[in-house]
TrEMBL record:
This is N-methyl-L-tryptophan oxidase. Residues 2-335 form the FAD dependent oxidoreductase domain. The keyword Plastid does not apply. Its cofactor is FAD. It comes from Kribbella karoonensis. Transmembrane segments: none annotated. Gene3D superfamilies: D-Amino Acid Oxidase, subunit A, domain 2 (3.30.9.10), FAD/NAD(P)-binding domain (3.50.50.60).
Length: 354
């Protein structure tokens, strides 16, 4: 909506909840911001586009949406974080040997084979402030926003699109649908699997320790030999350390309207706490804060973004790594909608690829 409004397009945004709510996938203060993205070499250009747009927006609003403190991709030399980061097109990465990694980051209880790739332009991004800023900027540029309004149906005709809500309907030339875990509900035929994935925060065992401040404990992804992995980052602000576990058993194919929002101490916490006790001995493995959230997986772990029909553009299937790309994806959707040439090759995100 922001990127369309920036082009002078007459645009209306419809959101079922309030702006910056915690019922979807974009809540919690932060997300990892990586540039050397292991998920696909083509994502570097999209992360850099987000960074450019957020920097420009921040200069106008006086807010910070990204803090670039670098990030670590840790694992064995043939692990996905290490090989994937090295393949990222146009990212200025540096390899760290096991000994360099152990010396610079003593917080890690490394396996003998572990090495790392340092992604210097990476860091963290501030999720909720960014969502609010995108919407506020779109409104400032002339967009109309309807919060607390649920889209109940979309009728596509040869001469236009009608978006229905319980109170009104809006007719437009095109519709852009990016409803996260609810995308398949509005776009039948798109195969996505929403997954319950809580957010967790921890504290150092020694509250006076500086070891887990963001400047000393930057964003990381760490894959273990058994295929599981931890990701997270330290903090200079609330001094809470965010850590999550990849590869843990999670409920898949959940109905986002029926998401289990209770926290179950044994099921949700035990495996992550055990991994933290083993890998980061300086952290207290009992979380101090947690919150339910959702990831929406696509069949190949990559987003769906682009044209879906003559009058329909979609984006979704975040697969757990989408926030850092959201402004860059927004720019691509706006380019698709207004029939401009995309700023980068996005064929790997084609919604029809399955
Ligand atoms: C635990 C966790 C950790 C993550 N870590 C990272 C990370 O480190 N780095 C990273 O880049 N990404 C990360 N992600 C992924 C990132 O958070 C998601 O890619 C991103 O938030 C997805 O945004 P979205 O816009 O697709 O979905 P949402 O933010 O859920 O937006 C969809 C919106 O559509 C609205 N909606 C749905 N149906 C309707 C309807 N019928 N009518 C009107 N509105 C509707 C919803 O209310 C919602 O606001 C993580 C995700 C999780 C859960």
């Amino acid at each position: 909506m922001w990127r369309l409004a920036a082009r002078g397009v007459d645009v209306v945004g419809i959101e079922r909840q309030g702006i910056g709510h915690s019922f979807g996938s974009s809540h919690g203060t932060t997300r990892l911001f990586r540039v050397a993205c292991m998920e696909h070499p083509g994502l570097t250009a999209i992360a850099r586009k987000s960074l450019g747009l957020w920097t420009e927006l921040g200069e106008r609003t006086g807010e910070t949406y990204v803090r670039q403190t670098g990030s670590l991709n840790v694992g064995t030399p043939d692990s996905r974080p290490v090989t994937g980061a090295r393949k990222a097109a146009g990212a200025a990465t540096t390899d760290l040997t096991h000994d360099e990694l152990a010396e610079r980051f003593p917080q890690y209880a490394l396996a003998a084979e572990d090495v790392a790739v340092w992604d210097p332009d990476a860091g963290i991004c501030y999720a909720e402030p960014t969502v609010r800023a995108h919407v506020a900027e779109a409104e400032r540029l002339g967009a109309t926003v309807y919060p607390h309004t649920m889209v109940t149906g979309i009728d596509v005709r040869p001469d236009g699109v009608t978006v229905r809500t319980p109170t009104t309907s809006i007719t437009a030339e095109q519709v852009v649908i990016c409803t996260g875990a609810w995308l398949s509900k509005l776009v039948p035929g798109v195969s996505l699997s929403p997954r319950r994935t809580p957010l967790f925060w921890f504290q150092p065992r020694d509250p006076a320790s500086e070891a887990f401040r963001l400047r000393n404990f930057p964003a990381f992804i760490w894959e273990f030999a058994d295929g599981r992995g931890l990701w997270g980052h330290g903090s200079d602000e609330d001094f809470l350390v965010k850590v999550g576990l990849d590869g843990a058993e999670r409920e898949r194919d959940v109905d986002p309207d029926e998401l289990d929002r209770y926290i179950h101490p044994r099921k949700d916490i035990a495996e992550l706490s055990a991994a933290i006790a083993d890998q980061f001995p300086g952290l207290d493995p009992e979380p101090v804060k947690l919150m339910p959230c959702m990831v929406t997986d696509s069949l190949d772990g990559q987003f769906l973004a682009g044209r879906y029909g003559d009058r329909v553009v979609i984006a979704g299937g975040d697969s757990g790594h989408g926030f850092k790309h959201c402004a860059g994806i927004g720019e691509l959707l706006a380019q698709e909608t207004t029939k401009e040439t995309p700023y980068t090759d996005v064929s790997f995100l084609d919604p029809h690829r399955f």
